[in-house]
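Section 3.1: Structural characterization of target chains.
Under the original work plan, the team committed to producing a structural model for every single-chain target entering the pipeline before any wet-lab resources were allocated. The record below documents one such target. The sequence was received from the expression subgroup and is listed exactly as submitted; it comprises 195 residues.
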Amino acid sequence: MTGLYDAGPQSGGRRPAPGRLALVQAFANTFYDLEARRAVDRLERPAGLADWLESRGLKGWEVSRADLDRAMKVREGLRALLHEHNGMSRDADALAGLRGAVAGLPVSITVDSRGVTRPVVAEPSVDAFLGLVVAVVHEAQSNDTWERLKACPGRRCGWAFYDRSVNRTSTWCSMRVCGGREKARAYRRRRVGLA
C-alpha cells in the first residue's frame, strides 16, 4: 500500500512532486503503467477506482458509475492543464468537463494546533476525495508549485512529472526515454530531408 500523498515510482528517476501535490501527480498518472511503458487505465471501471483508492489507504469505499465518470472528468481536465503547462494547446472540452465535475464538490480543511491549515478527506466518498484533489491544486497554485507539474509530450506517454529545473524548462518525463526517442525521430526527419 502507498500513502495518500505518495506519487510512486517516477520516470527517469525523477523525484516526485513535493508534499500533497504528489497526490495530484499520482491521480493524473492512473492512466499509465510506468513499468510496462504503456497506457493501462486503472480507472476504466468503478472497481479500478475503488482499488486505487484502497491502495492509498482509503479502504472500503463504494464507487458508482457516476463517481467514476466524475473522477475521469476531473483527471482528464487536470491532465489537460498539465499538458498546457508544457506548452501544448488548451483542450477546451477537457477543461469544460473539469469545471462541470468540480462544481459542488465538498472540500474540508483542518487547522492544527499551530494554526496551519490543510485539506483533508472528511468523509468516505469519491466526491470528498475529488474535493481534496482540487483543494491540493488550489494550494499548489498559491505556493507556486502547480505550473511545475507537467505532462510529457512523448508519443504514447503523457506521464505527469515535476519539473525541478531552475528555469522550469524540462520537457520530457525522461530524457533517456521520451526525449531520446524524439531526438532520434527529429534526426531521422532531417536525414530524410537531406537525401
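The first strand starts at residue 32 and ends at 33.
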